[in-house]
Amino acid sequence: MNEEIPSELHRAGLKLSTVKKRAVAFVIDELLLSALLMIMLWDAFRSLTTFDEMIALTNAYVLEYMVIKIIYQTIFVYQYGATIGKIVMKIRVIEIRHLTTPIFLSAFNRSVFRIISEMIFYMGFIWAFYNPARQTWHDKTARTVVVDA
Hints:
67% of the residues lie in helices and 7% in strands. By secondary structure, it is mostly helical.
């Protein structure tokens, strides 16, 4: 199936996004979400005096941060087929079967498994380097690919 995906995309006039573009989009999204967390916790951060206190505060909000990431990824991929980072990099997520923007359940599935990939030392992301369709674990479970917009 993986070998068929690039040829199907070629027939539809679509091109797989590079891993480099996806990595830059990932960094942009992470910076945006980290800035959002910093804004939300600004009053608490201002009162801290040591780096260890800052680490402890951010660790106290890991679960909330994961929920924010899932909501962000799900909504943007469902609504636009791309997060802000992907929009900046001019790439988008599509479902393999219909070559359209993912439905809500696919976007949600992709978001949850993206977090799982991150928790397992980013192994799901590294998988894309060795996959002919450049699919990560979260792409495989949601049956999506990332293409140039």
